[in-house]
Specification:
The complex is a heterodimer. Chain A contains 29 helices and 31 strands. In chain A, 35% of the residues lie in helices and 16% in strands. In chain A, helix 7 packs antiparallel against helix 19 and helix 23 packs parallel to helix 24. Chain A is of the alpha+beta class. Chain B is α/β, with parallel strands linked by helices. Chain B is built from eleven helices and 18 strands. The N terminus of chain B is likely disordered. The chains are: A alpha+beta, B alpha/beta.
């Protein structure tokens, strides 16, 4: 495989060079630099005085220029740095200061016409301090990219060498460095000959290439640590003693890292300034702090927008926002940076009127980014949009006409209030919750699904607080058919073979977190979350809130090997065993995300504690997660997107908007109707779908309505409405064993949105060996979810070749068009004029009259055809296959 | 629109082109590993040393059920303990390669073929995922299609296919995998790339000469794959559809006009061409082929599928899967075993499987050669797994995933090679084990697709196509 391997090695190198060493460079030519520096009127230097208190202490200095127009620019990488006494002090071109020997001096900073002087005191610089494995070597391995997920940090390691991901497990890494591979990787006698250095400096072939230079501080640390005897500062005895490797680390030998502070925590740079230097400081439990910028691992959440290099210099490539994640010793802090390009010369903010606070926040952001919002949508666009979004149905021609003809100034507000009270509103929003609550026959049977459906619909209809709904679900118990909320626990699948005794608790933790906190915890099941602050302890702690949940089946079991379809019952078991950590076997304390649950009483229902915490007004997640989900349904995109994936590395498109909506949601009692009313009343919601011609393309800041395919159920219902041919649905009855034979016809007029489960017909093969459900092929084609995941992503909202084929020649459209007694049949029987028939079809499907050109073309087709009926079928076909019909817009 | 995760790809014509994956404003690409534009370009430049893919297309002959390759191309007549089987090996055009005596036509193509004898996986029985995607994990149920799983090789071709003509890049015949048993078998789908990269599945209504008395006396499925919903509904002729389409162009669909060649229009136009394009309809028309040619492929469902596969490849379709599927609960009892020969292994092989396979494989090879297509078409014969060396009391062989063979032939393949060796019973790998991911990586490499390319998974994080597999250089020309 020689040639190929070489090629892959080459690729690997190219790929891995990107790790942690992306070029973020400031321009070098004087003219460009001068242009960026401009004419600052003052400099603000952080910190005001530098105190370096031990051998390897360092301090990153930040220099911000102020300008005549009150704007500011980070000038750190444009400064000229000089120590008044160079014997005392070293400073890099990026402003990282380290001491050489004890004394007092000044750091001289010059940029543009401005200069500044910072006093520097250096002490203890000559006093030897052993190099810390935990504090210095581990961060080097992370910062140099060694323990990155793509390199040795991957669970299986690379080329036989494995490190814990980003240094999450120092014990393992110590073992790997000093013991594994016969201890070849480190060498206390000749550190320069150690494999770890030879590889990192690429002196011997290293697939990861050269990680740092021979003279770099990283290399010095690795050499020094080995020369000092490979000590692990968390252990009592030196490493070369045999016993040490197995001796557990003792608490208290090393002060814990308490927090990381990154400056600036937020910043906006305006063109031509595209750079921002970051400075990181660590605070330890004993109160002492240290500059750790050079040992921090930085990453950008959107490399297309901005890069960050190992020194913490961020360079923007284009307008946009990023979070920069800063990781040091298992702690992560993130900062939010934004860059705004120069607007076109003729750019002018159009000053659109604001309907409510939604507009205030959305427009503020758009104005800042020089994005022009679209115009207000027309009345016919509004009426269609609102009916589809709020009720999942199309307006009738009469409704549309009455609304358009209405001249009252507040007619939009009135229509909003009216639609929110319709039963279709409750049907539609119940379905949305059922999708993510995983209401399917496979998990809870038709009986369970129907009971759950009715119960949920009741809550939505009466607009009971979502906080109470969450509490009712989380604290339910009893038999699932008679206590519908219990199905919240029943939908968690039972594995074929139970290998993890806590599979239920883990599923519930994941589902609760994703559904009510907007946090995907799945990654933390196996390792500390790579992009987040969530750790395995957070994950297991949340799972431990469900240890008392005991789920069992009622009645006699069916034949073995078949899925168990009996009713379930949920009870509390106060004596249930605690969840233990796999590595140590130690029990995990129950907790909320990032918070310990204090003093859990053995006789307490922990779920109640969780519900109390969740629905506390100060809960940082719940309200935001819910409002974001509702916003997503109304705009086709969350303020945080994906809608249930809140994390530091996935910043929201508009923090102020999200916070305001969440606050309002809490203030109005966690009710959906007021929230939906606020959103759809805003001018933002009522903007046209067509984007305005603006140089800055916007896909995420809500400058226009996002056009998107209708959800499967809504599309099918709409086709039924327009053609006047309803669907009839038949559902198989429940059964415990054997094969189902009984089916029940749902009442005539049942809409797809109202189906209690997504599988509506059962197919069995003759031998009775397989019993499987088939979904409605039309709904399935258009992305109806399986309801097996607590994720909006389960619904695939795409329009592709398959979907197009279904509408062009598929049986649903074909049969409804051909059905004699359909809309066309009725209209023809009524003997109106061709123009009237066309007008009616257009109003019904698209909520607007056809344009003159369209009328002419379509009526021509009808008049010229011998078979009028067939001609009208063709006309209706073009309407059903128009993007305007298939999409919400 | 942002362009990210760009990755170089070698085109069929040997030109290098940087393939840019367009991500329509989705945050999914906001992940931390997105290669910035410059980096992707760097990778592209460094790739000039890459060997271009020699194959423009691949045809996979997929033997569902787990073909007993030890009775086909890896015979061990001298094996102890009655595991050797009933068939004698015969010499082929490749020195040192012998095949079963029941493959008398295939022997002429071994100088163009390479046999990998040590494929193995731990993905469980009857799990088509490893073979079609390289993903090696067992599934909770083989009849459940999970959207979050890795995509099939064909779906990757479809995903990378930006020059969409009348044809899709990925066609699967004769029907949705498992349709004849009322199940949807995992494997041939777009997985986390999305359903829009699922194959174009044909449909079929197979028949047999007589009904099958029981599972282990299978009949040969006859019939022809046809385009889905391409049988225009009653009352709608091509003419009428075209008329409708022309009419649709005249109406004021403001949204479509703004979309201007975007996702919607492309999807709709693509669908319509499938229905109305004469080239597409011709490609699926086997009736017009000469009787001699049809006989050469065998007038079975499998043979007809292979004939269509050749026609599709001729039209530039990149990935065609021809499956020997099982038809038992629908449309009727025809073949309940496929290659899953738990009983009467040798009887079934002798009566139906091997003679029909032999005709179709050699017919395909002959036809491809005659048309000069074998130069840029790769043919792969594979299965979801292998079968036990031990012969059970029903003269059958049971499930076996520890060692089985895959055959490569045609473009890019070093003919007459054997890679890997099994033990004396063809039970376990003796040397050079090969995973299904290696097989997939090799197929990708033949197609000029870099197996180390990153594609966005369902959470937007980049995943490598190779799934850890490496290219088997030794069988490549």
């Amino acid at each position: 495989m020689g040639k190929m391997m070489q090629r892959f090695a080459l690729l690997l190198i190219c790929g891995s060079l990107l790790v942690g060493s992306l070029r973020a460079a400031s321009p070098t030519d004087a003219v460009t630099r001068a242009a960026i520096i401009g004419s600052p009127v003052a400099l603000n230097v952080e910190p005001k005085a530098i105190v370096l208190v031990d051998a390897r202490a360092s301090q990153q200095v930040l220099v911000t220029g102020s300008y005549a127009d009150a704007s500011v620019r980070d000038l750190t990488c444009f400064c000229e740095w000089k120590a008044t006494d160079p014997d005392l002090l070293a400073v890099t071109s990026r402003g990282l200061v380290t001491g050489r020997t004890d004394g007092t001096t000044h750091l001289e900073i010059r940029v543009g016409d401005q200069h500044a002087l910072v006093p520097v005191t250096i002490s203890n610089s000559l006093q030897p301090r052993p190099i810390s494995f935990r504090r210095e070597v581990m961060p080097v391995l992370s910062s140099a990219g060694c323990s990155d997920i793509r390199c040795h940090g991957t669970p299986s390691g690379k080329s036989g060498f494995r490190l814990s991901l980003w240094g999450s497990d120092p014990d393992l890494d110590y073992q790997q460095l000093t013991r594994d591979a016969f201890g070849r990787r480190t060498n206390a006698f000749a550190p320069s000959n150690s494999l770890i250095l030879l590889k990192a400096l690429n002196h011997v072939s290293h697939a990861g290439g050269k990680r740092f230079r021979h003279a770099s501080p990283f290399a010095q640390l690795l050499r020094g640590w080995q020369a000092e005897g490979l000590h692990d500062d968390a252990r009592w005895s030196p490493a070369f003693r045999r016993s040490s490797a197995t001796e557990p680390a003792k608490a208290g030998t090393l002060t814990e890292l308490r927090s990381l502070t990154v400056v600036p925590s937020r910043s906006v740079s305006h063109a031509p300034a595209r750079w921002q230097q970051l400075a990181v400081r660590a605070t330890f439990d004993d109160g002492h702090t240290a500059g750790v910028t050079s040992l921090t691992t930085f990453s950008s959440t959107d490399l297309a927008v901005a890069n960050v290099d190992g020194t913490g210099l961020v360079e923007f490539n284009r307008q946009g926002e990023v979070a920069i994640l800063c990781r040091f010793l298992g702690k992560m802090a993130s900062v939010r940076l934004m860059h705004i390009a120069s607007p076109p010369a003729d750019y002018r903010w159009p000053e659109p009127p604001e309907n409510n606070y939604v507009d205030t926040h959305v427009f503020a952001k758009l104005k800042m980014l020089h994005i022009t919002p679209s115009e207000l949508c027309s009345d016919d666009q509004f009426v269609r949009r609102l009916y589809l979004d709020v009720c999942g149905i199309l307006p009738t021609p009469d409704e549309t006409q009455a609304f358009v003809a209405n001249t009252e100034p507040d007619k939009r507000a009135k229509l909003i209030d009216e639609l929110l009270q319709w039963p279709e509103y409750a049907d539609y929003w119940t379905k949305k919750w059922m999708d993510v609550l995983r209401v399917s026959r496979d998990s809870i049977q038709l009986a369970g699904a129907q009971a759950y459906h009715a119960w949920l619909r009741d809550w939505i209809e009466n607009d009971v607080s979502i906080a109470e709904l969450a509490e009712a679900l989380l604290t339910s118990k009893g038999e699932s058919y008679s206590n519908p909320a219990v199905n919240f626990f029943c939908v968690a699948p039972t594995p074929k073979e139970v290998t993890d005794p806590n599979y239920l608790q883990k599923d519930l933790a994941e589902a609760t977190s994703q559904l009510f906190l907007g946090v995907r915890l799945q990654c933390a099941q196996c390792h500390n979350h790579p992009f987040e602050r969530w750790t395995q302890d957070d994950y297991l702690g949340l799972a431990a809130m469900f240890t008392q949940v005991k789920r069992s089946r009622l009645g006699k079991a069916g034949p073995s090997g078949r899925p168990d379809r009996r009713q379930m019952v949920v009870e509390l078991d106060f004596k249930a065993a605690e969840i233990t950590r796999e590595s140590t076997g130690a029990p995990v304390a129950p907790g909320f995300l990032g918070e310990r649950a204090s003093d859990v009483d053995q006789r307490q229902d922990r779920r109640q504690l969780l519900a109390d915490w969740l629905t506390r007004k100060e809960n940082p997640f719940f309200a935001k997660a819910v409002v974001n989900r509702i916003w997503f349904h109304l705009h086709g995109r969350g303020i945080v997107e994906p809608v249930d994936d809140f994390r530091d590395s996935n910043p929201s498109a508009n923090d102020a908007l999200l916070n305001a909506l969440a606050e309002d949601f809490v203030a109005t009692g966690y009710k959906l109707r007021p929230l939906i009313r606020t959103i759809v009343s805003s001018r933002t919601y009522q903007l046209r779908a067509a984007a305005n011609e603006s140089r800055q393309k916007d896909g995420q800041y809500f400058s226009h309505m996002l056009a998107r395919p209708l959800p499967a159920e809504v599309l099918l219902d709409a086709i039924c409405d327009v053609t006047g041919v309803p669907e009839s649905y038949e559902i198989m009855q429940d059964y415990i064993s054997g094969i189902p034979t009984e089916s029940v016809k749902l009442p005539a007029g049942t809409r797809a949105v109202q189906l209690p489960v997504n599988d509506i017909a059962t197919l069995i093969n003759e031998s009775g060996k397989y019993v499987r459900y088939e979904l409605n092929p039309f709904l399935r084609t258009f992305g109806q979810p399986n309801r097996t995941q607590t994720c909006e992503c389960d619904r695939e909202q795409k329009f592709g070749r398959k979907q197009a084929l279904e509408l062009i020649v598929g049986p649903v459209v074909t049969n409804k068009l051909a059905y004699a007694d359909n809309r066309i049949g009725h209209l023809l029987a009524r003997k109106g004029s061709d123009a009237e028939i066309l007008g009616e079809l257009y109003l019904r499907a698209l909520s607007r009259p056809p344009s003159d050109a369209t009328t002419e073309a379509l009526l021509d087709h009808v008049t010229q055809s011998e078979d009028k009926r067939k001609a009208w079928e063709d006309v209706l076909w073009t309407v059903l296959n128009s993007q305007e019909f298939i999409y919400q817009h | 629109m942002i362009t990210i995760l760009g990755s170089p790809r070698r085109c069929c014509d040997g030109l290098t082109r940087r393939e840019s994956l367009q991500a329509g404003g989705l945050a999914m690409l906001g992940g931390m590993f997105g290669l910035p534009r410059d980096a992707a370009a760097t990778v592209a430049q460094n790739e000039n040393a890459q060997r271009p893919g020699k194959a423009k297309s691949v045809i996979v002959l997929y033997l569902l059920g787990g073909a007993p390759t030890q009775d086909m191309f890896a015979l061990k007549p001298e094996a102890p303990g009655g595991v050797g089987g009933e068939f004698k090996p015969i010499a082929t055009t490749a020195p040192g390669i012998e095949v079963s005596e029941l493959l008398p036509k295939s022997v002429h193509w071994m100088h163009k073929s390479a046999i990998v004898r040590t494929v193995n996986h731990k993905g469980g029985c009857h799990n088509p995922m490893p073979s079609l995607t390289g993903y090696p994990e067992p599934l909770p149920s083989i009849g459940v299609v999970q959207d979050g799983l890795p995509p099939s090789m064909g779906s990757v071709c479809e995903f990378l296919n930006h020059d969409r003509g009348e044809f899709p890049a990925y066609v699967h015949m004769p029907c949705m995998l498992g349709w004849g048993q009322h199940i949807r078998r995992a494997g041939p789908y777009g997985g986390f790339l999305g359903r829009q990269y699922d194959p174009l599945f044909t449909e079929c209504e197979p028949t047999s000469e007589k009904p099958s008395p029981d599972t282990y006396h299978p009949q040969v499925a006859l019939g022809t794959p046809r385009l889905p919903t391409a049988t225009l509904p009653a009352g709608v002729t091509i003419d009428r559809l075209n008329k409708r389409w022309r009419l649709a162009q005249q109406i004021d669909d403001a949204l479509r006009q703004a979309d201007g060649g975007g996702e919607f229009s492309r999807a709709q136009e693509g669908a319509l061409t499938l229905l109305t394009s004469k080239r597409v309809r011709d490609a699926f028309d086997v009736e017009s082929a000469t009787p001699e040619l049809r006989d050469r492929y065998g007038r079975t469902l499998f043979g007809n599928s292979a004939l269509i596969a050749r026609k599709l490849v001729e039209q530039g379709v990149q990935f065609v899967n021809v499956t020997w599927d099982i038809f038992w609960t629908r449309p009727g009892r025809i073949d309940g075993a496929g290659w899953d020969t738990h009983q009467r292994n040798f009887g079934i092989l002798k009566e139906t499987l091997l003679p029909n396979y032999d005709v179709t494989f050699s017919g395909l090879m002959e036809d491809l050669t005659a048309r000069g297509l074998l130069e840029d078409t790769l043919v792969v014969v594979m299965s979801d797994m292998g079968r036990t060396p031990k012969i059970n009391k029903h003269a059958g062989r049971d499930h076996w995933t520890f060692c089985y063979s895959v055959l490569f032939a045609g473009a890019g393949i070093r003919g007459g090679t054997v890679y890997g060796a099994s033990d004396d019973q063809a039970a376990y790998v003796k040397d050079n084990p090969v995973s299904p991911a290696d097989i997939c990586a090799t197929i990708y490499a033949c197609l000029g697709i870099d197996p180390e390319m990153q594609i966005p998974d369902s959470s937007g994080q980049p995943a490598r196509l190779s799934l850890g597999g490496g290219v088997i250089e030794e069988i490549l020309a």
